[in-house]
Amino acid sequence: MPTTGIINGTLMRLYKDAVAIGYATSCQMNISSAMREILTKDSAAGGWREVKKGQLSGTLSTEALYAGPGDASTNYLFDDLFTDLVAGTALTIKFTTDVVGDNVYTMSAICTSLDLNAGVEENVSYSASFEVTGAIVKTTKA
Amino acid sequence: MKLRLLKEWNGKPAGKVGVFLSEYGEQMIKDGIAELLDEDYVVEDMPKKEEVKQDPLYIPIPVPMSYFNDEEQEENITKPKNK
Fold this sequence. Notes:
With 142 residues, chain A is mainly beta. Helix content of chain A is 7%, strand content 51%.
């Protein structure tokens, strides 16, 4: 049964293949459409800009707390993303609540940046950014 | 769902715990790779920051000796006036 009402953001998270990106505190997916200008001397728009849809693109980002190799977790962590970024590996990412009936956004994405932050008397945290390559496919979890 | 690995998986040793998509997790359980810990689990326990309670600081303020000259009279202030 799909989630009713407004979905709690805590439950919606990024999964690499089927494994959660660990210790995430926030996840974002951005989808945008570039516009191409079609204004010509023949247009009847009176000088106003006219556009049509161009390239579709997507980005992902997440912020998470950092845990090193000593962490007792199988989740996808900073070190895994580091390896992927260096190798330029395209990852299969799902953005979902994992609740039956809810949406699952599936895409292939390449990790483009990692920012590791270590403040005094603060949790070590990082942010990761991904560029989507190809289509973002929306399905419903069966 | 939250699973514990029973066998090495993707370079991660047995005994490690993680959050998996349910379809995939169910298959891992069937294949004997992992055991189920919590079916509805979505978010792992975040490492918590230890709260440090600071002791109150008492800072001695230097005062001249004359400050204590009228100390006895000051105590009289608390006594009722009309007696």
